[in-house]
Every structure is written in structure tokens, then in C-alpha cells.
Amino acid sequence: MRGLALGCALSLAAFGSIGRAAAEPLLLQIVHATAGLDQRTSKPIVTIALTEASKRSFVQFTSGRVGGKMELRVNGQVLSTAVLREPLLGDSFQISGDFSVDETNAMAGRLSTPGVKVEVEFLSD
């Protein structure tokens, strides 16, 4: 698994160790996910747009947990593990890291699949 960062309103930096769950997972409802290039770095990214209900839940879920370790899963499989750098304040976030354009296209495709189950969960040390 490569390191990654989730950015935009939510910014995460990669970490190496995975701990046990510190809270119940939050199920996210995705409006769409698109691959693109970061305007600042020109590196490949995936932008994930959330439903209004998921946005509200994610704001509450991340509130007060800056510095906490998180896991993002798609259909039960870990897509990334990272440290929360700031709470989500908007209706979308970005995934970035050491990815190729093909990898971000594949990630966006997985996240945009109808019926996909996307979860985030905070982990303990």
C-alpha cells in the first residue's frame, strides 16, 4: 500500500503502522469520484464528493480528532491509512500521494461504482 494524503477540506498524511479501531466506522455515501491533477503540484489526485448527509456526518466524525489515525476502506478493503490533518469542512475531499494517473483513474472508478461501500474509521495506536 502506498502512502497518501487526503486533502481539500480534509488533509491527511500517510503513516506506516495500523492499529485497532478506536471508534465505530462511518459509512460514507459518495456522489461521485473523479481523477485529476492537483493544481498546485500537478500530481494525480482523486476528488470525492459526498452527499449532504455524509458531509454532515463526516464533519462530526472528524471534529476534535485532528492528529488521529484513520483508515479508508472500499468494500471492506483498505484503500488508505493516514493521519487526519484537519477536519472536513466542505462537501468533498481529495486523495493524493505517490500515485500514477492510471492508479487514480482506477481508484475513482472503484469509488464511483454503484452500491460501493465506503467507510472511514479512526484507529487506536
Please indicate the percent range of residues in DSSP E strands (runs of 2 or more): 35-45%
- Which strand order spans the largest sheet, edge to edge or round the barrel? 2-7-6-9-3
Q: What's the tally of helices? A: 2
Overall domain count: 1
Would you kindly provide a written description of the structure presented here, covering whatever features stand out?
This protein has 125 residues and is of the alpha+beta class. The chain has one domain: Gyrase A, domain 2 (2-Layer Sandwich), CATH 3.30.1360.200. Helix content is 18%, strand content 44%. The protein has two helices and nine strands; from the N terminus they run βββββαβββαβ. It has helices spanning 52-62, 101-112; strands spanning 4-8, 11-14, 26-28, 30-37, 44-50, 69-74, 77-86, 92-97, 118-123. The strands form two sheets. The chain has a five-stranded antiparallel beta sheet with strand order 2-7-6-9-3. A hairpin with a 6-residue loop joins strand 4 (30-37) and strand 5. The chain is globular, with a radius of gyration of 13 Å. It starts with a strand and ends with a strand. 30% of the residues are buried. Mean pLDDT is 81; it is low at 1-5 and 7-21.
Task: Identify the notable features of this structure and list them briefly.
4-stranded antiparallel beta sheet, alpha+beta, 2 helices, Gyrase A, domain 2, disordered N terminus, globular, 125 residues
What secondary-structure arrangement, pairings included, does this model have?
Layout: E1 4-8, E2 11-14, E3 26-28, E4 30-37, E5 44-50, H1 52-62, E6 69-74, E7 77-86, E8 92-97, H2 101-112, E9 118-123
Antiparallel strand pairs: 1-8, 2-7, 3-9, 4-5, 5-8, 6-7, 6-9
